[in-house]
UniProtKB/TrEMBL annotation:
InterPro entries: HAD-like_hydrolase_sf (IPR050155), HAD-like_sf (IPR036412), HAD-SF_hydro_IA (IPR006439), HAD_2 (IPR041492), HAD_sf (IPR023214), PGP-like_dom2 (IPR023198). It comes from Corallococcus soli. One of its GO terms (molecular function) is hydrolase activity. Pathway: Organic acid metabolism; glycolate biosynthesis; glycolate from 2-phosphoglycolate: step 1/1. This is phosphoglycolate phosphatase. Its EC number is 3.1.3.18. Belongs to the HAD-like hydrolase superfamily. CbbY/CbbZ/Gph/YieH family.
Length: 214
């Protein structure tokens, strides 16, 4: 890794950069109807967003996790753009940070291949330097996915931006400052329990912390 001053800014994907929860929840619930199982409520599913898919299904139907995951992974790639869109101001913020000299990466619980397909489909690929998913190693709040994203960027990290306490605790474990957005999964009250450095309704204040690099 470079010994130069750190330039890495990491972002969670779903619920942070992209308003994608309706499509995720719809595909999650599809698994139950596909297998003829009773489905949990939307609120029950939403509360678990940010955890790995198999862990989420384990909470509701532990005997059917393999079939439910297979149904989700067949359904979601065909439906992930039904409603998903970048949150307002995301593209402008990413573009401004790139122009200021920062290196930007996604660090998500999604698998890397699916995360890259999603980012590409939404037209965000040209604004990010790397997309890192969680592939067979510990998920957030463990910092592994953040460390791998920074290694791919070749720089140290400055901020982790997320919408769940899992994102924030992973950022803290990686030694980064943390920025919580309230437009995603967890409520402001829940996010506050993780004591982020910033708790904001959008990304505007992030730019005030990151002036152009010399």
């Amino acid at each position: 890794m470079s010994t130069a001053a750190p330039r890495g800014i990491l972002f969670d994907l779903d619920g942070t950069l992209v308003d994608s929860l309706p499509d995720i929840i719809a595909s999650f619930l599809h698994g139950f109807s596909h297998l003829g199982l009773p489905a949990p409520s939307v609120a029950e599913v939403r509360a678990l967003i940010g955890q790995p898919l198999d862990a989420m299904y384990m909470r509701f139907a532990p005997e059917h996790v393999t079939g439910l995951c297979a149904a989700y992974r067949e359904h979601y790639p065909r439906n992930f753009l039904n409603h998903s869109r970048p949150f307002p101001g995301v593209e402008r913020t990413l573009r401004a940070l790139r122009e200021r000299g920062y290196l930007l990466a996604v660090a998500t619980t999604k698998r890397s291949d699916m995360a890259r397909r999603f980012v590409d489909a939404l037209g965000l690929d040209g604004l990010l330097h790397h997309v890192q998913g969680t592939d067979g190693f510990p998920h957030k709040p463990a910092p592994d996915v953040l460390h791998r994203a920074l290694a791919a960027l070749g720089t140290g990290g400055l901020w982790m931006v997320g919408d769940t306490t899992l994102d924030l605790r992973a950022g803290q474990a990686a030694g980064l400052r943390t920025y919580a957005v309230t437009w995603g999964t967890h409520s402001p009250e829940e996010l506050a329990t993780a004591t982020p450095d910033e708790l904001q309704p959008d990304l505007e204040r992030l730019l005030s912390h990151l002036p152009p690099l010399a």
